[in-house]
Amino acid sequence: MKVLSPLTKKIDDSITEDEISRRLALALISAEQSAELEFPSLPQFAAGEPIPAAVLIPLLRSDGEWRLLFTRRNAALPEHSGQVSFPGGRADPGDISPVQTALRETQEEIGLHPNDVRILGQMRPYRTVTNYRVTPVVGVIPWPYPLRPAQDEVSRIFTIPLSWLAEEANYEIRLRELPQPHDPVRVIYYKPYDGEILWGASARMTINLIQLLKS
């Protein structure tokens, strides 16, 4: 079963940083004030005050095309172990904004210095089933870059072309079983790319960005 809003247009790799920033700003203005729920049919999973968090969605140019940078989380981590994700994490008490959270966590996880990121904007927050309120922060990073993954958190760093991520043939919605008495939920899964499978919240954020860039 396909995503309900098909990505029928092609990604234009000539789109500029200024245009991406403009579209992010317009989308945020028109977005609902509440966070997007990972599973709207399961509000009980998001009970209580959500934990603030942020991720960096790193855009980069390579061989004339836009690509997104992802990490594979260490299999020993207590939450979301072994999953493909964007660098980021929960906010510290001293963080003054989601941008600061995203940049700090990204530096800790993959060694990307905050001064080397050109922030283009933010996207609507995303409230996960584990009750994190995650703000996606979109930024452009230089490439190539001497990244240094934190071994206790990150097993691998890799990139995927936006054009590949935007192809409808490369992703689908599957039903994921939950413990009884809950019904199965709909989850986005991508086909494997370079041995990695993007799915879940990170896939949803990816789709949201692509829809914005194709608007």
Describe the fold and architecture.
The mean pLDDT is 89. This protein has a single domain, classed as Nucleoside Triphosphate Pyrophosphohydrolase (Alpha-Beta Complex). The radius of gyration is 16 Å and the shape is globular. The strands form 2 sheets. Strands 1, 2, 3, 4, 5, 6, 7, 8 and 9 form a 9-stranded mixed sheet that branches. It has a two-stranded antiparallel ribbon with strand order 10-11. The longest helix has 14 residues, at 17-30. The chain is an alpha+beta fold. The chain is 21% helix and 30% strand. The two termini are 23 Å apart.
Provide a concise account of the structure shown.
This protein is of the alpha+beta class. Helices cover 21% and strands 30% of the residues.
Shape by Cα distribution = globular
Q: What's the total helix number?
A: 4
Q: What is the rounded distance between the termini?
A: 23 Å
The CATH architecture would be Alpha-Beta Complex
Strand content: 25-35%
Structural features:
alpha+beta; 215 residues; nine-stranded mixed beta sheet; Nucleoside Triphosphate Pyrophosphohydrolase; 21% helix
List the helices and strands and how they pair.
Layout: H1 17-30, E1 36-37, E2 51-62, E3 65-73, E4 84-85, E5 88-90, H2 98-110, E6 118-122, E7 126-127, E8 132-140, E9 154-161, H3 162-166, E10 171-176, E11 185-190, H4 200-213
Parallel strand pairs: 1-7, 2-8
Antiparallel strand pairs: 2-3, 2-5, 3-4, 3-9, 6-8, 7-8, 10-11
